[in-house]
Amino acid sequence: MNEETAIHLCLEKKDPRGFDFLVKQYRREAMAHALGFMGNREDALDMCQESFKRAFIAMPKLQRLEQFYPWFYTILKNCCLNTIARKNTAIRHFENVQITQSQNHPSESPLLALQKTEEREGVWSILSQLSEDHREILILKYFKDMKYEQISETLGIPRGTVMSRLFAARKSFADHFPPKGVS
Fold it and tell me: 1-120, what's its fold?
């Protein structure tokens, strides 16, 4: 079976064997991208599972699909970014609670411990400070080792946009490096 046949089975026949083939074909690539976004294996596995589930549900509703992975990548990316946004909201809430508690109990400093932990995360910490576009393009280029043409196809943007976005992302990363508190 090839990708075209698998897509046809999914769209026309609603046959799960086609989707099974696509999952087996792209699970490693999906895991690498999810790991780049999430920063740890467990969350990346969860994001892959959730994204493949969403794709399985959505795929039969499509009229046509040329290539599976660029379409699927959009689902995976949105799933990861939404989860990151929810976690960041929870972290901000936790930090606000900790600040309030440390003001009431000055000898306790959980916020300071949290900041030290974040500094040790190094590159991941810096990446998390970047815009979604910058983080995404750096992950694709340096963690997935994609060429400009591959990034262009995956993100659905022109090659020139890939180049300019990558330039801006590198500059943004450099502006955040080294992490605060590191000499």
Answer: Rna Polymerase Sigma Factor; Chain: A (1.10.1740)
Q: What is the pLDDT of residues 123-142, one digit of tens each?
A: 777 777 888 888 888 888 88
Q: Which numeric CATH code is attached to 122-183?
A: 1.10.10.10
Per-residue pLDDT of 8-53, as tens digits, reads 888 888 888 999 999 999 999 999 999 888 888 999 999 999 999 9
pLDDT confidence bin for 97, thresholds 50/70/90: low
Q: What is the pTM of this model?
A: 0.57
Q: Which two tokens stand for residue 148?
A: 């400009």
Q: Do residues 98 and 140 lie in contact, with contact meaning Cβ atoms separated by under 8 Å? A: no
3-state SS, the chain, equals CCHHHHHHHHHHHCCHHHHHHHHHHHHHHHHHHHHHHHCCHHHHHHHHHHHHHHHHHHHHHCCCCCCHHHHHHHHHHHHHHHHHHHHHHHHHHHHHHHHHHHHHCCCCCHHHHHHHHHHHCCHHHHHHHCCHHHHHHHHHHHHCCCCHHHHHHHHCCCHHHHHHHHHHHHHHHHHCCCCCCCC
Tell me the C-alpha to C-alpha distance, in Å, between residue 173 and each of 42, 130, 138, 139, 151: 26, 7, 9, 12, 19
Residue pair 120/182 in contact (Cβ under 8 Å)? The answer is no
